[in-house]
Amino acid sequence: xxxxxxxxxxxxxxxxxxxxxxxxxxxxxxxxxxxxxxxxxxxxxxxxxxxxxxxxxxxxxxxxxxxxxxxxxxxxxxxxxxxxxxxxxxxxxxxxxxxxxxxxxxxxxxxxxxxxxxxxxxxxxxxxxxxxxxxxxxxxxxxxxxxxxxxxxxxxxxxxxxxxxxxxxxxxxxxxxxxxxxxxxxxxxxxxxxxxxxxxxxxxxxxxxxxxx
Length: 213
What we know:
This protein is of the alpha+beta class. Helices cover 33% and strands 24% of the residues. It contains 6 helices and 6 strands; from the N terminus they run ααααββαββββα.
């Protein structure tokens, strides 16, 4: 437990090796379920029974709210549905900071399919929203999404490595404009621009609590 915020889990404890391993195994399970059309009904029923028992063994699920008090962005990024190491929903996109820009690389599996063989456009938009938010954070300008515009130039293929690159375009008071592009090899698949607003301290406390980072 955190000494800074008693009763809340430290980020390294939540996103530890064991939870990260479970999340990775669940991604494999999701991909197998979405990919293997020849699986028999008996095998699916048996798998459901095992999964139900495993779900019960992990304890009580929260019914609402965050269930923890975030002290910094490091507390909730492991839970991210895009880059979260502890989230089985995430396609597991790893990111790094290079000269103030965020470069994120990974691949989308069967769970994110829209048109056959390609990533769903809504998932591309979600990933853009995340990497733009991260680049704002690492440049000291965290904000909440006001608008997000995406231009889809080419379909984004499944099962291959793709790269997001994001940067802050300009900051005007509490308004941040950031841009990003998504590439497969040398092909630009999509581009995005987001307008983000830094909430006032009072509004941040209303949304996230007094101990929000």
